[in-house]
Known about the structure:
Layout: E1 2-8, H1 20-23, H2 28-42, E2 44-50, H3 54-67, E3 70-74, H4 83-92, E4 96-100, E5 122-125, H5 130-150
The protein binds 1,3,4-trihydroxy-5-OXO-cyclohexanecarboxylic acid.
The site of 1,3,4-trihydroxy-5-OXO-cyclohexanecarboxylic acid (DQA) has 10 residues, from loops.
Amino acid sequence: MTTVFVLNGPNLNLLGRREPHVYGSTTLADIETLVRGKAETLGAAIMFRQSNHEGQLVDWIQEAGAQGAGIVINAGAYTHTSIALRDAISGSGAPTVEIHISNVHAREGFRHRSLIAPVSVGVICGFGPMSYLLGLEAVHQVMVERARQAKPSQH
Ligand code: DQA
């Protein structure tokens, strides 16, 4: 069974109340329920966490790497600023998918740059809460394929 850490950064605890015209009315608890449902169909175990603190996110990324888990991360504003998160992701070796609820490329210029995208497998943004489900499916597929390639051939 694959394990995926679904990590949420600053202000995402306020989803549902925070700028609903941008982020919608779905709460983070609602998203966790959706993610857990999807994980069940994929056969993946989920660690779903949120912190407003950069160092806490670094600790969780390191934990995911040490466990051989994958990561789906909505790093919030730290996406655009955090060398610490970037170093944690690249150092952890954990396959990581960066996600965003909003289409960051259709917003302010400072949101167009991601420091973590270059060390992630890929980026999904703009699909609302569905970004989490697409991210989970993507990282799960990557992990299954890597495990298959690592297995010695049966012949
Ligand atoms: C966000 C986009 C970021 O630019 C912003 O700082 C957030 C949320 C998103 O999910 O759309 O906090 O990551």
